[in-house]
Amino acid sequence: MNSGNPSQTFGILELYRPANGVADVDIVAVHGLNGDARATWTSKSTPTSWLSHPDFLPKYLPRARILSWGYNANISTWKGRSTSQDRILHHAHTLVAQLNADRELEEAVDRPIIFLCHSLGGIIVKKAIAYSASRTGPKISFLHSLYTCTYGILFFGTPHHGSSKANLGYVVEKIASITIPRRVLITESGLTKALREGSETLQDITDQFCPLMSRFLIFFFWEQERTEVKCLNLTDYIVTEASAAPILDNTERCGIAANHSEMCKFESTSCQGFRDVVAALRRYCRSAPEVITSRVVQEKEVILQRRREEAVEIMRSCLPNFGLVGEESNDAWSPAAHQSTVACTETVNGSPGRGLVPGTRGSTSLSQLSAEGAVNDPIPRGRRMERFGGPSTATKAGDPGALCHTFEGG
Q1: Going edge to edge, which strands form the sheet with 64-70?
Q2: Domain residues for 118?
Q3: DSSP secondary structure string for all residues of 279-333
Q4: Residue 183 lies in a domain
Q5: Most exposed of 64, 98, 334, 360 (fewest Cβ within 10 Å)?
Q6: Residues pairing with 11 in the sheet
Q7: Within a 10 A sphere around the Cβ of 356, how many other Cβ atoms?
């Protein structure tokens, strides 16, 4: 987390935290192409950042921690700036990693998240959420918390549709041309190349994000004023209403009386755009803690159940000739084998915290579930050969229960 250095523009920047240090929600702002973690949200005429000024957002949401995530979104070397060679996927991975690191250090990995996304920053956030949703392996499930804890997303002029090769390239060129003379417009940025390569870039991200949308509160804002693009000799909407605010069930949409660049800059608390945004944020912040707390508990149970199932699969692979309780087996039945199998499987299917997943009882966050060595490797490393590969008097004697007993007794 960076807050003291005003020149810091990359990574997680803390713009405001509650006076008592206790926050109910993390609000995370993400800028777009040619944007900046501070300037994107700062009025040019005042200059005032409505995210951090005490008379703006902090006044209305005193119990929210307000962050801005910065990344290299430069798409030209104009004025000596270095360009980003990262693509959308790389930026999304970095956002997940850096936001998770910040929340880990704040001991707030289960705190609700509300995203504010301007322009193509919304595409990165959608990709980041889809990536986080897929992180469920035992060693990386802590990255799943961003998906679990995201409650709401406000999109400002994000191009969700209109992603054909011609249209998307045109949008990128218009965004770049707002600040960069055409004679020096250089499409050497990896981010720009990814967006220009064809319709699959946005379409793939949309396909990944759509199945997840029902979990979030979503508000679409579109620009109501055209932008003058002098070097292209035109005045036009950078992102059209149809692209920025698709009409979908259970989502909100509203226009903002500003052009593409100014739609997320508010010079006064009386601006209608500011009032619309803050009203939505206050509503989201009131309901987020209860919903996310319940969701975190549910996700813990899902992960724990997944670990149980993985443990059962390990047992099946190690004991291919013996069926579990409820399964048919070709082996002769004996009371000793039956009792041993019951003891073996009870540790898998018993009450939470027993058997092959020791160490998870009392866990307080999703990330801790993946940190336990027993979850990753339920069988002590030094005893594998003894149990499954080495000589065993029990197996030589034909006692199938001996192997099962090693699970319970280990």
Answers
A1: 11-16, 64-70, 25-30, 113-118, 150-156, 217-223, 252-256
A2: 11-296
A3: HHHHHHHHHHHHHHHHHHHHHHHHHHHHHHHHHHHHHHHH-TTSPPTTS--SSPP
A4: yes
A5: 334
A6: 70
A7: 22
One domain for residues 212 and 339: no
Listed in sequence order, the residues at least 6 apart from 49 whose beta carbon sits closer than 8 Å to its beta carbon are 15, 38, 41, 42, 43, 56
Same domain, 199 and 253: yes
Distance CA 30, CA 118 (A): 6
Cis bond before residue 181 (omega within 30° of 0):
no
Residue 330 and residue 287 in one domain = no
Closest by Cα among 105, 25, 108 to 67: 25
* CB within 8 Å of 30: residues ≥ 6 apart: 68, 69, 95, 115, 116, 117, 118, 121, 122, 124, 125
Residue 99 belongs to a domain with what CATH number?
3.40.50.1820
pTM, two decimal places: 0.73
CA distance 316 to 324: 8
C-alpha angle 21/25/26, rounded to 5°?
85
Q: What is the end-to-end Cα distance of the chain in Å, rounded?
A: 43
Q: What is the pLDDT along the chain (410 residues), one digit of tens a residue?
A: 555 555 668 999 999 999 998 999 999 999 998 889 999 999 988 889 999 999 999 999 999 999 999 999 876 554 444 555 568 899 999 999 999 999 999 999 999 999 999 998 999 999 999 999 999 888 999 999 999 999 999 999 998 875 343 455 566 666 666 655 544 444 445 666 666 544 567 778 988 999 999 999 999 999 999 988 766 677 888 889 999 999 999 999 999 999 999 999 999 999 999 999 999 999 999 999 999 999 999 988 888 888 888 888 888 888 765 555 555 554 544 555 445 444 444 444 555 544 444 444 444 455 554 444 444 444 444 444 343 344 444 444 444 343 333 333 33
Cβ count within 10 A of residue 133 = 19
Question: 70: which residues sit within 8 A by CB, 6+ positions away?
Answer: 8, 9, 10, 11, 13, 31, 36, 37, 38
Flag whether 226 is in a domain. Answer: yes
**Pair 291, 342 in one domain:** no
Total domains in the chain come to: 2
Residue 238 maps to a domain:
yes
**Amino acid sitting at position 279:** A
Q: How far apart are CA 101 and CA 96, in angstroms?
A: 9
What 3-state class would DSSP assign to 150? strand
For residue 179, give both structure tokens: 């600040």
